[in-house]
Automatic annotation (TrEMBL):
A Pfam short name: Peptidase_M23
Species per Swiss-Prot/TrEMBL record: Aliidiomarina shirensis
Descriptive protein name: Peptidase M23
GO molecular function: metal ion binding; metalloendopeptidase activity
Compartment(s): Cell envelope
Entry keywords, A to Z: Hydrolase, Metal-binding, Metalloprotease, Protease, Zinc
Main location as per UniProt: other
Length: 434
């Protein structure tokens, strides 16, 4: 069985400690110096009933309001869910605000955003005892809120509040027993993360055909939190992949790109496989029969069995030197890469590049099909070096670029830290499950 995920959250974010401390001080102030305002006293009564050690939701608009908190408490907040066909005039009418108030509100700098409100979104209105509109909050995204508030001189002023995102580092590890996709799912990775991991190592490993039982991976990745709430995963910060005993490592540098532990770019001239691994039907047995002859004799290319219509990518940057059809190869495309390399893609159901086109690595140039002399849908892929057929999964490809020497000390420090974290968590994980 694939081992389950092990996630460990790193240190508690500082920001939370700060918020907790601020709230404590605030409560203390309210208790020590009670305001003469009745509303504050009412709230104090609530505070006296609080039990120690219990977490309470605070009614205070902490961090979401620029108004002083004691005046904020006198407002009545109304949440309004925007319906299809709503506009601000209609909403104001429905909530009992005047056209005059809407006019004044729309003088605020960012108020034009309110012309593009979306059904399903929520507007929060704050009004005082005279039904005067004191504030309007519109949540623009997970992190951003538009806040329009009445100032002392009676005009409205807008602010955009961006909530900070806390990043925590999570860890996942798995050993592959059935296939890479299942291992990723059982390690708790999302579909997007599984694809990202395959892309990250896709210049070194053919995820469609070269994965074997016993292969392993370890991943450090970001988890994003807003106000203590998990909102999704972020980037992979470091990963290790062991494929048939060979270890590959990728580390995110501060320039946003990934490098091996020795500082070479993960990105190379050629992808190992021209189709996404999750579309290819394969098994661990490498003795595949040729789809026509039924022999295991090696032929000059590699066959990827995949459904008709599966996208076929150019494995490197290059120029299309053939895009045609014949009875043997079906629809086919040849791409020239620099002086020495040519890649060939046969039996396509569709060609999406013409002779003379410049294509980029990963660009879709056609679709898997069953045209030509074949019995089932598959991509036949050939890789030629100086006109000689080579195995694209094992051929030595041009070395990837290294980081500039000047950047190496910074990178080495990052790499050492991330790899130590992977090692530490992996050891802890293995100790837990063994
Ligand atoms: Zn073939």
């Amino acid at each position: 069985m694939v081992k389950p995920i092990q996630q460990f959250l790193q240190h508690m974010p500082k920001r939370h400690q700060v918020i907790i401390a601020s709230v404590s001080i605030l409560l203390l102030l309210l208790l020590v110096w009670p305001s003469e305002k009745a509303s504050a006293s009412r709230d104090m009564a609530q505070f006296e009933q609080l039990e120690p050690g219990v977490r309470y939701e605070l009614a205070l608009q902490l961090g979401t309001s620029f108004a002083p908190i004691d005046s904020d408490m006198e407002y009545t907040w109304v949440d309004y869910e925007i319906r299809s066909g709503d506009n601000m005039a209609r909403i104001f009418q429905r909530l009992g605000f005047s056209a005059r108030q809407l006019h004044d509100l729309t003088q605020a700098e960012d108020a034009s955003i309110l012309r593009r409100i979306h059904p399903g979104d929520t507007l929060r209105f704050a009004k005082d005892a005279n039904n005067d509109l004191m504030a309007l909050h519109y949540r623009l995204s997970e992190t951003d809120t538009l806040i329009i508030e009445k100032t002392e001189n009676g005009t409205y002023q807008s602010n955009r509040e961006a909530k900070p995102t806390d990043i925590r580092i999570a860890f996942a590890h798995a050993e592959i027993t059935s296939n890479f996709w299942n291992a990723g799912v059982q390690a708790g990775l999302s579909q997007g993360q599984i694809m990202s991991l395959a892309e990250l190592f896709g210049w070194d490993v053919d995820f469609a055909l070269d994965i074997r039982r016993g292969d392993q991976f370890s991943v450090l990745y970001e988890e994003r939190y807003i106000d203590g709430q998990y909102v999704g995963t972020g980037q992979i910060v470091a990963a290790e992949f062991v494929n048939q005993g060979e270890v590959f490592r990728a580390i995110l540098h501060e320039n946003g790109s990934y490098y091996t532990d020795t500082g070479r770019s993960m990105r190379k001239t050629f992808l190992r496989a021209p189709v996404a691994f999750n579309r290819v039907s394969s098994e661990f047995n490498p003795r595949r029969l040729h789809p026509v002859t039924g022999r295991v004799a090696p032929h000059r290319g590699i066959d990827y069995a995949a459904p008709t219509g599966t996208p076929v990518m150019s494995s490197g940057d290059g120029r299309v030197i053939a895009s045609a059809y014949d009875n043997l190869n079906g629809h086919y495309i040849f791409v020239q890469h620099g002086e020495r390399y040519v890649t060939k893609y046969l039996h396509l159901s569709r060609r999406q590049a013409n002779v003379g086109d410049r294509v980029r690595q990963g660009q879709v140039i056609g679709r898997v099909g069953a045209t030509g002399r074949v019995t089932g849908a598959h991509l036949h892929y050939e890789f030629l070096v100086d006109g000689v057929h080579r195995n694209p999964r094992t051929v030595n490809l041009p070395k990837a670029e290294s980081l500039p020497v000047a950047e190496m000390p910074v990178f080495e420090a990052i790499a050492a830290e991330q790899l130590a974290m992977i090692e530490g968590r992996k050891r802890f994980y293995l100790a837990m499950v063994d």
